[in-house]
Amino acid sequence: MQYTKTYDSPLGEILLAADEQGLTGLWFDKEKYFARNLDPEHKRGDPPALKETCRWLDVYFSGREPTFTPPLHIIGTPFQKEVWQILLQIPYGETVTYGDIAHQIASNRGVGEMSAQAVGGAVGHNEISIIIPCHRVVGANGSLTGYAGGVDKKNFLLRLEGADISKFSIPTKGTAIKSEW
Questions:
Q1: Residue range(s) in the chain whose domain bears CATH number 3.30.160
Q2: What is the largest CA-CA distance in the chain?
Q3: What is the set of active-site residues?
Q4: SS3 for 28?
Q5: For the chain, what percent of residues have pLDDT higher than 90?
Q6: How confident is the model at residue 146 (pLDDT cuts 50, 70, 90)?
Q7: Residue 174: which pLDDT band, with cuts at 50, 70 and 90?
Q8: Which of 68, 75, 165, 166 has the CA that lies 20 to 30 A from 92?
């Protein structure tokens, strides 16, 4: 059984979902894949994983790096889980490219190369945004691209973490966002 709760953030309402094992989803209202894997039989509740997630978000949105991770129940394909585990290793306030992650996976697997496009697909389908920090992944050309919650939110989160985003290009409203994936 999944339980849900809403969290009011500086970026608007966030829907949280968890089961007995841990957090299963964290979605910004109206994001691209909003509640995609939410169990239709879910109900409102406040299990320990949701309480811990709210505590983590309180610390995070206060501008501090959380020193703990709420319990996570990561649901996805083996490849997605491999990508998301790499995302969990990206330090607070730092960024990597989709290509960096592809190279790391290729190296881990002992193969010559891995598709940055495939990595982008996995990053984009991350169900636990912010905590699994997909906002820390940027385009090879320095663009803040590819965030299901919206580039404006990605920009906010990176600034909140103190990331040096002066080197990145930020698409303006109405500008088509070119994806490197």
A1: 3-61
A2: 47
A3: 134
A4: strand
A5: 65
A6: confident
A7: very low
A8: 75
